[in-house]
């Protein structure tokens, strides 16, 4: 009975995976975000929290805090001008 202590396919797969990851990271270099604007409101620049600056998203996918969206005089997305109604403000908290 032959006893294999090591399965060569695992090394092959691992090697392929490594080169794939290397290729992948070259293709999409991981960049540090310029600023943390995914975590803060685009209008008032406040960081999102669960009380004062509640992160909300609109149907168009743009985000802003509930306060700012709620007090916009014209109910339009501040980023793409898409009209929205108050019940289309989706709270993320
Ligand atoms: Zn805001
Ligand atoms: Zn929008």
From TrEMBL:
SUPFAM superfamilies: RING/U-box. GO terms for molecular function: zinc ion binding. It comes from the Eukaryota. InterPro entries: Znf_C3HC4_RING-type, Znf_RING, Znf_RING/FYVE/PHD. Pfam families: zf-C3HC4 (PF00097). Residues 41-81 form the RING-type domain. SMART domains: RING. Gene3D superfamilies: Zinc/RING finger domain, C3HC4 (zinc finger). Keywords: Metal-binding, Zinc, Zinc-finger. This is RING-type domain-containing protein.
């Amino acid at each position: 009975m032959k006893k294999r202590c090591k399965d060569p396919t695992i090394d092959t797969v691992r090697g392929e995976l490594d080169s794939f990851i290397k290729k992948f990271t070259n293709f999409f270099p991981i960049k540090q975000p310029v600023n943390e604007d995914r975590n803060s409101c685009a209008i008032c620049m406040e960081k999102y929290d669960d009380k004062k600056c509640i992160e909300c998203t609109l149907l168009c996918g743009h985000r802003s805090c509930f306060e700012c969206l709620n007090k916009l005089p014209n109910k339009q997305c501040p980023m793409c001008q898409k009209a929205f109604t108050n019940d289309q403000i989706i709270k993320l908290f």
